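User: I'm curious whether this sequence folds into something compact or stays loose and floppy. Could you predict its structure so I can see for myself?
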Amino acid sequence: MTGFRLTLAALVTTALALIAAPAMAANAGITADVTMTLGKGGTVHVVEKLAGGSGELKRTFLTRTRHDDANDRLYEISNVKGGTYADGALTVTSPATVEYDVKGAVAPAGDAEELRWFAVSGWDTAVDKATVKVTGPGLVQNLSCFAGELTSAIGCTSAAMDHTGTQADFEQEGLAPGQALTVVVGFPEGASGGQPILDKRFSLAGAFALNPVTGGALAALLVLLLGGVALLYWTRGRDARVVSHETGAVNPVRNGHFSPPDGVRPGQIGTLVDEQADVVDVTATIVDLAVRGYLRIDEQPRQTYDAPDWLLVRLPHAPSHTLLPYEQALYDAIFEGREAVLLSQLSGSFAAHLGKVRDALYADVVRQGWFARRPDAERTLWTTVGVVLLVAGVVSTALLAWFTSYGLLGLAVIIAGGALAVGGQYMPAKTAKGAAALAHTLGFRDFLFSGDVGNVAEKDRVELFSRYLPYAVIFDGVEHWSRLVASVTGNGHQADNLYWYHGPAEWDLSKFAGSMRTFTTTTSGAISASRQFRTL
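Assistant: Here's the prediction. I'll summarize afterward.
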């Protein structure tokens, strides 16, 4: 019986051993026998003999580590044999012998040079045992090794040099998947002449570093670019000088009749003053056409909650052939073959004609000789150049900051582009004739706001003050001059209407100032989606 039990125990033990053997084989790690030879130029030739394991094995090389605060250190793998290498990953089938070259593993270290390489690392399976032999073009000066995680400071199982001092030997028992055996060997200074491969790491502080080189270059570039913008404005965008005797208040009354300075009409004044054909210039021109007898403005009766409205009536026998081109364009856009139109009917539809009227106004101020080129075209040109320079500055700043430390130079281009884009609004330049007309116009404005009606005969005041009103619209003085117009009539008595403005049945001139203020506001809104008033 005892013999039978021993025999049964032996059979069970054998069966368990046979069952466990495949599992142990499946969990077995690999062994790596590595030989590293440092040659001239700092290239390390590596031969790895792999055994154990089963099936396909994969190793991911470490090709980038942190070197210092500003740089990463790169390791270049090349000439791989005995396996498939792509994108930093090596694939082999054990057993195998793999060869490859490494550049960037050598760096100066005081009075020596140091070889540092992750001789065994990145395997997707455990490494039961690893041995590493390192030789180079000189005697070994020092050596050390680290095992475990990449940042581990734990030494390897053993590290020594042979009796000749020309070979360093390292050994490590048991590395988990992904862990590394790092070997460090010192050789005489300049033995191989190897240098680390450094890649500058991007940082804002480094990209926009201020040092004597970038500081001096930035200052010089800023002076050059901003000086160029200033010179451009001085030579191309600056109004011609006007001598002091051109300024001062201007009395537009001659022999009891209105005569604006230099014959300038309201719409022209607006464009002359700020080099822009604004909606308010068009509104003032409509009032001017009424005052001069080309149309009549009839205020419509309304209930308490009705929106105000006006009927613009074309006057028969009006000498439309005497209109300036921009006035004719406006006159035609208002009536479009009809004899009368409500102001509310112009809302929305008139905006399509506004561009033509503005174009005609810009062409007119050039034809008058006040500008050498159209102000809008001049403004657009230089603003566009500034925006292009600004965009180029943004692109150059990004490129310089990413690839160099001269990002500040790109900022100088951005500043210059921004200055030109903003300065482009001031580039339209008046000629000497235009500058003189502007000086007279500003003198006329001072006269309008002085409140001095002069010695104008009472019979002439209604027409004369009405002629002032469109100019008051330009200078945002509608309230003041509307009250003056409403205060007098041709015979010295209060009247219900003006020759160019009619109110509803219950209306009289005491309400004219309020009506005129509402009319100009509503007109500006009707002919354009945006309302603009000029304040000087």
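Summary: The chain has 14 helices and 23 strands. Residues 1-10, 12-26, 529-536 have pLDDT under 50 and may be disordered.
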